Structures are given as structure tokens and as C-alpha cells.
Amino acid sequence: MTLTHGENEMTISTVDNSQRTAAKVAGWSGLLTFAIVVLGNYVLLNPLVVPGDAAATAQNVVAHQMQFRITVVCFLTYSLGVVVLLSALYVVLEPVNRGLALVGALFRLIFALLWLLSPLNLLAMLRLLSNANYLQVIEPDRLQALARLHLGATFDDYYVGLPFFGLAATVCAYLWLKSNHIPKGFALFGVISSVWCVICAFVYLVFPGFAKPVNPYWFDSPMALFEMVLSFWLLFKGLKQPEIAAT
């Protein structure tokens, strides 16, 4: 809103109730999606995987099918949570720059859609280990190897989607920097960590050996830290009221 009086022009930008509500939704969805993906990956799925042993991994999956299927549900829920998050962020950041806010939302939507490939690969793994009649023509060790291949594909799904996640985070962090809704130093950290993630993701896709000098956990950990702290900030601090600029 702009008020003009004589030679003085005052620009007032206020945070409305829809933005405040969306900020809370973004905070909750950011934290919940983080918790869900950690639960699915590190608590449920990883304990079933035996590195370098497809047969043992297959046996673990068959013996803990309920745990494995809960992982599938976790991954589906995570994708849904990302859609909720991107919608909330769009509402908050759209007044800053509608075009960039839309670009950030679309990049995050692409990531959410690519993430859906992971539960599909997990379900395909279960089907290969199901002892269905039409699979009897394939030797058990080959089925186990194929099943392990589908499990490994879930990691490829993530790293294909990671550049889109990083680009979405970069755009949003830039808009946070311009908005003054959060501390500028914190927003700048978000921009830098997100750009770092994008660079690492593209380099890794072209040069897989990049994972040796730079551990893949360092690709997205700084960005994930920014988004997690941001979620807490939005929940407990809320949006800062932009300063009034007068000319």
C-alpha cells in the first residue's frame, strides 16, 4: 500500500493474517516432513539394508514387510508434506515477488513428484520378492539382485530431484532475504547453503567420484539445517514486520 502526501511518499508493506497463518503452516509442515523422512530412511529402511549382500537384504525385507511398507507410507506422506510446504511458502513470499515465488513453488513441486518414484521402486522390490507364480522362471539370486537394484534406485531418485530442491530453496532464501521477514544474516546463509547444494548435486550427477572428496551428506546438510531452523523460527517467532520506507 502506498500513501502520497505532497512531496512525501510513504510505502507501507504489512504482513496480513493469511501470511501469518501460512508461516505457521510452513513451520509445522517443514518440521513434520523432516521428521517423517528421517524416520522412513534412517529408522525403518536403513536397518534392513546389508551393504554388499543382496540376499541378506532381501531376507530382511521379506521378514519385516510391515516395517518396509510403513517406509513406503512415510515416503508418500513426505511428498504430500512438501506440497503443503510449497503452498504455504508461496502465500508468504508471493507479495515479495510473485514470479519468483511461483518459480520456487514449481521447483519444489517437481522435487515432490520425483520423490514419488522412491515408493514405487520400493513396491517394485516387494513384488520381486513376493514369490508370485510368474516369477518362478527366474532364479532366486537373480530376483534378489533385481530387488536390490530397485532399492538402490531410490537413492538415484533423490539425487535427480536434489537440484530442483536446491533451486527451490535458493529462490525462497533469496525472497526471505528481500522480505526482511527473517534476519538478513540467516537468510544469506540460506542462499549460500542452497546454492552449494545445487552445485554439488549437478557435479555429482556428472562426476559420481565427487562423492569421495565431498561426502554426499555435505551436499544438502547445510541447506537442511537452514530449512529446519527456519521452520522453528516461523513457528515461534513468526514473520517480522517489514520496516516502513519513506522518501
Structure description:
The N terminus is likely disordered. Strand 1 and strand 2 form a beta hairpin. It is elongated and about 70 Å long. Helix content is 73%, strand content 4%. It has a three-stranded antiparallel beta sheet, with no helix packed on it. The chain contains eight helices and three strands; from the N terminus they run E-E-H-H-H-H-H-H-H-H-E. The chain has 247 residues and is mostly helical.
Give a quick set of tags describing it.
247 residues; mainly alpha; elongated; disordered N terminus
Multimeric state: single chain
Instruction: List the total number of helices.
Output: 8
Kindly state the percentage of residues in helix: over 70%
Largest sheet: 3 strands, antiparallel
Q: What is the terminal separation in angstroms?
A: 14 Å
| H and E order | EEHHHHHHHHE
Main sheet: strand order: 1-2-3
Shape designation? elongated
Q: Give the uncertain stretches in residue-range form.
A: 1-12
How would the blueprint of this fold be written?
Elements: E1 2-5, E2 8-11, H1 17-45, H2 54-63, H3 65-93, H4 98-115, H5 117-128, H6 140-179, H7 184-206, H8 217-236, E3 245-246
Antiparallel strand pairs: 1-2, 2-3
Helix pairs in contact: 1-3, 1-8, 2-6, 3-4, 3-5, 4-6, 5-6, 6-7, 7-8
